[in-house]
Amino acid sequence: MISNIEKEIVDLLKTGDKRAISLLYENYADALYGVIKKIIKDDDTAQDVLQESFVKIWRYSKKYDADKAKLFTWLYRIAYNTAIDKTRSLKNKIEKEVQIDSSSVYNVTTNSLNQDVLDIKKHLGSLDEKYQIVISALFFEGMTQQEASEELDIPLGTIKSRLKIGLRELKKIYNP
Known about the structure:
mainly alpha, 8 helices
């Protein structure tokens, strides 16, 4: 049975009314924070994830379908997945941190750089815009494919396809 407050929130979400966020926060923030805290122990990071979750909830609010899931189940999934993504992101960041002592970055000479590929941004401009956007997001802005998918509002599969096609087109330029 759907409660009156839940029905009101769902109606506000469907119309894009910003009052929905206040009501969601008042009624669900504590429960969602509890879900996040089971995954992320650090309070500050958990608060950040809660905020990110509410941003995603708002961004995807018109996609909510009451026939597919109860409101709390939908909110729970977003908060849970956001917490898992954050955990993976932090783990990857720690693993990828540069160790200055074992880095060979400072040993690279200009002779070892392929001068032909330094103009990649120029050649990127010769591709269709849809491929340029994806390649720029992934290589020059440092986004993951998932982040690019969310940021550009393009399905993940499409991101992967455009990356593959874009790289194939660039390869034709460099290896005619």
